[in-house]
Design brief:
Helix content is about 50%, strand content about 15%. By secondary structure, it is of the alpha+beta class. The N and C termini lie far apart (about 75 Å).
Length: about 150
């Protein structure tokens, strides 16, 4: 998709610029969970500079963050693998995606099972009660104020 935008035409379309697709090359980039082999497209003039994985980069920063973000949005490991295949032009195994998510699941479970501050519960409950009482008082003021009943009840 990046190359299509750079060239200004789709694959197999004729163009007048002379700069066309010129195959692709493979390279291996390092991620936090291991090496991933990707396919990088080329153009005939050599002017294409990929944005997703820049030229000459051997380290893919943010790969884990991208996988975790997709996982947090509810995608399955298969969906994530397919999405990464669309973006990076490579088959990423479900096992690789699972290794990334498993590294965080333990930390997430520890955070979910952490002991809560006892005072936090009471502060939250007090805020809820105050808001409820304020709403009731406002409602009573509207109802009784509308009927012309004053503070003395007459």
């Amino acid at each position: 998709m990046e190359l299509t935008e750079h060239l200004g035409h789709e694959r197999n379309e004729r163009c007048g610029s002379g700069n066309v697709r010129n195959g692709n090359s493979h390279k291996t980039v390092r991620t936090d969970v291991g090496d991933v082999r990707i396919t990088v497209p080329r153009d005939r003039a050599g002017s294409f500079a990929p944005a997703v994985v820049p030229k000459h980069s051997r380290r893919l920063a943010g790969f884990d963050d991208a996988v975790l973000s997709l996982y947090a949005k509810g995608l399955t490991t298969g969906d994530i693998a397919n999405h990464l295949a669309d973006i990076y032009g490579t088959q990423v195994s479900r096992d690789l995606v699972s290794r990334v998510t498993d590294a965080v699941v333990e930390q997430m479970q520890q955070w979910q099972n952490r002991p809560l501050d006892a005072g936090r519960f009471w502060r939250t409950l007090r805020i809820i009660v105050v808001c409820a009482v304020a709403s009731i008082v406002a409602w009573l003021a509207v109802v009784f104020g509308h009927r012309g009943i004053g503070a003395a009840g007459r």
